[in-house]
Design a protein that fits this description.
alpha/beta; D-Maltodextrin-Binding Protein, domain 2; 2 domains; 5-stranded mixed β-sheet
Length: 310
């Protein structure tokens, strides 16, 4: 399961190094990206546009994917731009239209994007993504202690992350249902915080008594020292599942050549802690490994069962 530890108004900002950081509202951003996408139709040199689902604070995402853009540009001798998006649905939509070429998706959004984009190719996942987990957390005032029994959560005010988050909604809902709990049946209905960081903050404040988020973000925030068990307690951890991965769109292959998928896979799987610690540490990974579409069959089926994949 997934645990983790992922646009100011105005026109384009000056390019910093080899990446461009664009911002704006969802509508303005989509329009800007669409305009940029059309400029590459003649096959001339154009940037490789990368993006990611906004699963963490924007400042964290900008630092992470700005670093990736610089590293990727240097390694592949390409111009690479990181373009932030406002929500999970925007990442899927802009990938489908070709305005984002390479996107870091969660398992569910990756399935959605691939089903909507004929010819999309999974490129790589982190080593931790073949054995990923979600973490259920509770406010310390509940006096619940770590347990494998999810049933006590049913009586608590509960928040998921984003509605289409794999680790913050889809897989936790599946495991709650397997435990005999209606994943929509929490008092007052479940909340949707929008990101893993927001879930931690809402549970810590007592706005919600419990929530669920991806293990990697949770571990990362614990390591930073901002969370204590006097505020939030890790209650339970889900079984493992495949989760985050890079997905490449077919229009990028048309622009940069048929060898682009292999070049990208070689880049990511070639990252080493000795040489590329800045990238790997930001991803909370020891390495990247190849992946394939069949790794996400379970997520697709659960998504269909829950009405999140059609």
């Amino acid at each position: 399961m997934s645990t983790v530890p992922a646009a100011r108004s105005g026109g384009p900002v000056p390019r910093i190094s080899r990446r461009t950081l664009l911002a704006g509202t969802g509508v303005a951003l989509a329009a800007a990206l669409a305009g940029c996408g059309s400029s590459a139709a003649d096959g001339s040199a154009a940037p490789l546009r990368i993006g990611a689902i906004p699963d963490q604070d924007p400042e964290v995402l900008q630092r992470l994917y700005g670093t990736v853009a610089d590293s990727l540009a240097s390694a592949l001798d390409l111009e690479v731009e990181y373009r932030p998006v406002t929500d999970y649905a925007a990442a899927v939509s802009l990938f489908r239209t070709g305005d984002l070429d390479l996107v870091w998706f969660g398992g569910l959004t990756g399935v959605q994007a691939r089903l909507q984009t004929r010819g999309a190719v999974p490129i790589a996942q982190r080593d931790i993504d073949e054995d990923f987990h979600s973490v259920f957390v509770v406010n310390a005032a509940t006096r619940l202690t770590p347990s494998d029994d999810l049933r006590p959560l049913a009586a608590l005010r509960f928040t998921y992350g984003s509605e289409t988050s794999t680790s913050g909604r889809l897989m936790p809902a599946y495991f709650l249902r397997e435990a005999g709990i209606d994943p929509q049946g929490f008092p007052g209905g479940p909340g949707f915080s929008g990101s893993h960081d927001a879930t931690i903050a809402l549970v810590a404040s007592g706005s919600y008594q419990a929530g669920v988020l991806n293990e990697q973000v949770w571990r990362s925030r614990l390591g930073e020292g901002g969370i204590t068990d006097s505020d939030v307690v890790e209650y339970a951890r889900t079984p493992a599942y495949h989760d985050y991965h890079w997905l490449l769109g077919p229009r990028a292959v048309d622009r940069f050549g048929a060898d682009l998928p292999d070049r990208l896979t070689d880049y990511f799987t070639g990252l080493t802690p000795e040489r590329d610690a800045d990238v790997l540490e930001l991803f909370g990974a020891g390495s990247f490994i190849p992946t394939e579409a069949t790794n996400y069959d379970q997520i697709e089926q659960i998504g269909r069962d829950l009405g999140l994949v059609r």
